Task: inverse folding
């Protein structure tokens, strides 16, 4: 959220609202990015004569006898006295980790990025063994020995192959450059002389000269390393941007590395950017973007709807995809990073990663499918944990609900209009002078009572806590933090002071272990030795905003890079990780308010690889425009690629006053976002859904109810994510990885494994939409049961999409479990009966799953849950059998986290609490004729049912499908049973 006020109305939006680009660097304004790109330009110009100066010393290669770890000494022919180490490990699941660092350097490179991202130290394979040859080091592994890893010595190159085909290659283009630490040379008297002397402290050896000779003989005279490093010390020791100067006390230490995918033409990931899911190019003949993608967490308000600029979070994970295979990479670096993407041929992708500081620490995830990569990624960083079930409901936010009574009124209006909502939010104005944890008592005289009033119908509150603390004597949180020295320091080791919401502020240093427990204790609702938030309740959950961190008067609206964190690390080294530590500790704090702990809800704006373990994210301060609505969908999908499944964007757009049509469409987007929150800027008009006029109000009410009826589907999808790592909302390439026609598709997506295919409308005035069906299968319109038939060649179908119509198809072969009784909040639905919707496939079968637990505690980890499987099949001609059976004991093959599943016992305590929950209705879509009998197996009694004639699933024609509605079959959701339908 930013402070800039809005002028004018909606029509002025595109003109008035635009990112202040001059606040943020382009690559050419960033010294190390400039150097990295210049290196790649020189390489391209030299073309075939270009050769990486880095090589492995074969005499210094060691392999561990029992484990798949290889270590080698690396040197650069440009600086023979500088030593580098290379370590390559193969994990037991085939993931490869490649680390390189400078050895005995003048200073130390930051090497802890991975330790914050990873859940555990990965286990090294003890079955893979290395073969060290004269020219390279090789390891072969995989079930069929299909994977080969080759570390070539000279020049250094690391390649991963599958079935002899190159999947990913490091330094194949020779752009690896780890700038070693050096001493700043005293300024020379005479400029001329400086230019003729070689740079650095060591003389080039003969080898380097040779290379120089090949490439550019003239360069030798002036600077023998110029062919590689350029001929000036460009921004080595100091750098200015706008009115700020970065002092760079450690000098140059940037890292450049090319990562090539010779057989993969499409790449996805590296969130967060506002662009297509299939990442457009930044290099080559006519690149889409002229700048590389930037990862440098920043408060980029009013951001562009199509840009490679940095946004609030960074996950340096990339998937490279082709119809044959998918591979993934993760570059564990916490400093500012720029990534160029280009294609030198139709089938390959070249990427170039330029980071400001830190070691090289790259993970190669071999795939070979998107599904396999999600599992490999989830084993490294942990899957998205199961969120509190209520947090999948609707969240109502605004900057600001201005008083306790305002909150009560908003809640009342939702109830009066029969609109469900689970969470009411408070933005910064609840806090006296923006001192978080301290209520503004004038407007919020009774915070505990207010929260209890909200909680009375099962609802929660979310309150904002930002990482900046007002520097004032009447703020205990600040006083204690400064006394205990828990705050970020300047380069001269003073407390860093910057400007944020609270005026003059200081920032908690979450890299300091001493901050952790103290911060967790702040949230305790009982009185303690240290100050704590006693005026709070366990129904209050937390929103962490501004944690990039946002500093209004700092360079690029963040902290100076030469600020100092715990351990003496510069802010530059950890910038992109900073926001993650804050939400990590907040989630621990919220969790530890109750004993036993309850699942915390924490929303974070800033994030890094691994942040998904601590809560949800949203896409920040978007604009109320159609473009932003559309790109928000793509951004949520891209975050899923990075493992951050619990994601959404502000419904309605943060800035601007969306017209009713736009707002309705945005609710349709929100209903199908994992995280569903409406939010608005302080200068916008109120736009809670109950304020809409008809017909918009009723349309939105129906949409909110649709979300709530589908909460069991969302929760089951999250459960699957929490054991497999697969995203909750899935792009086409994840579900149909071999369908080339769908590689670029990012405006329609799948909800978990439910079979629901959504294509939200993001255009004004639309009355129909085109949905791509990739297969020869029947798909049903969720609302009208109109049957569409796809084709094995792929087919676009036109579906009705007037304002009240959301393009939502259900794939034939799916069974959905929904709860159709409107309630005020999700927890009130706990014992509601289920409706099963059986959408028959073209061959007359279907299946689906339902996962349930108490929704708030961790008792599911002790086996307290139910996991049911519904199957429709035709044991004989003219018989359809629909059964409900237990899946709790089954170990999904794909499970990354199966610990919780092994303890399952069908008679567990949770299952007992829902033992009376019924299935109240079964709807079968696409049956081939009118039944002659519908019974529960083992009972002679006919059930009540209705049948409407229509298209059968097996027919090729389109039209409204037949629908059989079985009323109250009197079967229970926790019990095994089967319905038998005779035609
Ligand atoms: C962050 O979270 C993990 C659990 O995922 C925990 O092990 C770690 O200690 C936490 N703390 C910090 C400071 O990152
Ligand atoms: C479906 O529509 C898209 C977008 O108009 C088009 O690019 C694609 O070729 C179409 N696919 C088929 C199979 O007609």
Result:
């Amino acid at each position: 959220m930013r402070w800039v006020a809005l002028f004018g109305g909606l029509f002025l939006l595109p003109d008035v609202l635009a990112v202040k680009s001059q606040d943020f660097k382009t690559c050419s304004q960033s010294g190390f990015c400039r150097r990295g790109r210049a290196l790649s330009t020189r390489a391209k110009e030299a073309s075939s004569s270009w050769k990486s100066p880095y090589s492995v010393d074969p005499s210094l290669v060691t392999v561990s006898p029992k484990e798949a770890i290889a270590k080698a000494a690396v040197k650069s022919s440009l600086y023979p006295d500088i030593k580098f180490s290379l370590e390559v490990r193969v994990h037991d699941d085939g993931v490869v980790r490649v680390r390189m660092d400078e050895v005995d350097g003048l200073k130390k490179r930051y090497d802890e990025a991975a330790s914050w991202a990873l859940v555990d130290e990965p286990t090294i394979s003890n079955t893979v063994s290395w073969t060290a040859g004269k020219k390279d080091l090789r390891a072969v592994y995989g079930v069929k020995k299909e994977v080969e890893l080759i570390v070539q010595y000279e020049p250094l190159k690391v390649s991963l192959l599958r079935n002899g085909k190159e999947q990913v290659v490091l330094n194949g283009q020779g752009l690896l450059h780890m700038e070693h630490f050096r001493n700043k040379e005293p300024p020379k008297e005479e400029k001329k002389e400086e230019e003729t002397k070689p740079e650095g402290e060591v003389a080039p050896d003969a080898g380097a000269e040779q290379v120089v000779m090949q490439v550019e003989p003239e360069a030798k005279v002036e600077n023998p390393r110029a062919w590689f490093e350029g001929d000036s010390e460009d921004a080595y020791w100091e750098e200015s941007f706008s009115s700020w100067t970065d002092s760079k006390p450690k000098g140059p230490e940037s890292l450049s590395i090319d990562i090539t995918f010779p057989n993969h033409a499409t790449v996805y990931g590296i969130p967060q950017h506002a662009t297509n899911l299939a990442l457009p190019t930044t290099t080559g003949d006519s690149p889409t973007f002229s700048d590389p993608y930037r990862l440098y967490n920043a408060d980029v308000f009013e951001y562009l709807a199509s840009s490679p600029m940095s946004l609030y979070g960074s996950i340096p994970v990339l998937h490279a995809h082709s119809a044959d295979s998918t591979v993934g990479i993760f570059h564990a670096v916490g400093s500012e990073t720029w990534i160029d993407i280009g294609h030198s041929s139709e089938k390959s992708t070249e990427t170039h990663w330029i980071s400001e500081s830190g070691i090289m620490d790259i993970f190669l995830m071999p795939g070979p499918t998107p599904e396999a990569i999600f599992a490999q990624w989830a084993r490294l960083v942990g899957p998205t944990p199961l969120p509190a079930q209520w947090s999948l409901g609707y969240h109502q936010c605004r900057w600001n609900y201005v008083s306790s009574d305002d909150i009560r009124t908003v809640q009342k209006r939702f109830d009066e209009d029969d609109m469900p909502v689970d969470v009411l939010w408070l933005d910064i104005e609840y806090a006296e002078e923006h001192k978080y944890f301290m209520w503004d008592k004038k407007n919020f005289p009774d915070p505990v009572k207010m929260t209890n009033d909200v909680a009375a119908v099962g609802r929660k509150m979310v309150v904002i806590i930002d990482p900046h603390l007002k520097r004032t004597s009447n703020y205990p949180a600040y006083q204690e933090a400064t006394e205990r020295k828990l705050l970020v320091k300047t380069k001269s080791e003073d407390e860093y002071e910057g400007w944020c919401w609270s005026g003059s502020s200081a920032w908690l240093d979450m890299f300091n272990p001493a901050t952790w427990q103290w911060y967790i204790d702040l949230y305790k609702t009982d009185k303690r030795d240290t100050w704590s938030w006693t005026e709070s309740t366990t129904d209050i959950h937390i929103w962490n905003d501004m944690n990039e961190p946002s500093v209004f008067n700092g360079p690029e609206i963040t902290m100076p890079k030469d600020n100092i964190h715990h351990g003496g690390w510069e802010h530059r080294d950890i910038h992109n990780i900073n926001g993650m530590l804050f939400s990590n500790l907040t989630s621990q704090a919220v969790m530890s308010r109750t004993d036993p702990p309850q699942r915390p809800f924490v929303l974070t704006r800033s994030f890094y690889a691994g942040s998904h373990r601590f809560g949800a994210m949203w896409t920040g301060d978007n604009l109320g425009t159609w473009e932003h609505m559309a790109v928000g969908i793509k951004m949520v999908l891209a975050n899923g690629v990075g493992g951050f499944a619990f994601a959404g964007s502000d419904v309605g757009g943060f800035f601007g006053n969306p017209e009713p049509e736009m707002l309705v469409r945005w609710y349709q987007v929100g209903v199908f976002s994992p995280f569903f929150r409406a939010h608005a800027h302080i200068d916008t008009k109120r736009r809670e859904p109950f304020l809409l006029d008809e017909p918009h109000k009723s349309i939105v009410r129906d949409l909110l109810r649709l979300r709530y009826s589908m909460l069991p589907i969302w929760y089951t999808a999250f459960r699957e994510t929490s054991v497999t790592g697969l995203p909750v909302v899935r792009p086409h390439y994840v579900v149909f990885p071999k369908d080339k026609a769908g590689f670029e598709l990012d405006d329609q997506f799948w909800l978990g494994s439910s079979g629901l295919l959504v294509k939200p409308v993001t255009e004004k005035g639309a009355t129909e939409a085109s949905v791509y069906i990739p297969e020869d299968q029947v798909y049903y319109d969720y609302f009208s049961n109109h049957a569409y038939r796809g084709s094995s060649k792929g087919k676009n179908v036109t579906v009705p999409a007037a304002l009240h119509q959301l393009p939502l198809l259900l794939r034939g072969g799916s069974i959905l479990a929904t709860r159709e009784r409107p309630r005020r909040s999700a927890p009130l639905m706990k014992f509601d009966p289920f409706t099963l919707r059986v959408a028959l496939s073209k061959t007359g079968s279907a299946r689906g799953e339902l996962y349930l637990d108490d929704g708030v505690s961790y008792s599911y980890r002790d086996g307290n849950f139910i996991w049911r499987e519904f199957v429709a099949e035709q044991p004989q001609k003219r018989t359809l059998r629909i059964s409900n059976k237990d899946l709790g004991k089954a170990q999904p093959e794909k499970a990354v986290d199966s610990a919780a599943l092994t303890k399952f016992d069908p008679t567990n305590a949770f299952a007992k609490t829902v033992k009376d929950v019924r299935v109240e209705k079964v709807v079968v879509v696409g049956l081939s004729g009118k039944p002659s009998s519908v019974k529960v197996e083992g009972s002679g009694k006919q059930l009540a049912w209705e049948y409407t004639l229509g298209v059968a699933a097996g027919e090729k024609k389109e039209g409204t499908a037949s629908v059989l509605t079985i009323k109250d079959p009197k079967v229970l959701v926790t019990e095994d049973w089967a319905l038998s339908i005779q035609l």
Notes: The first helix runs from residue 13 to 16.
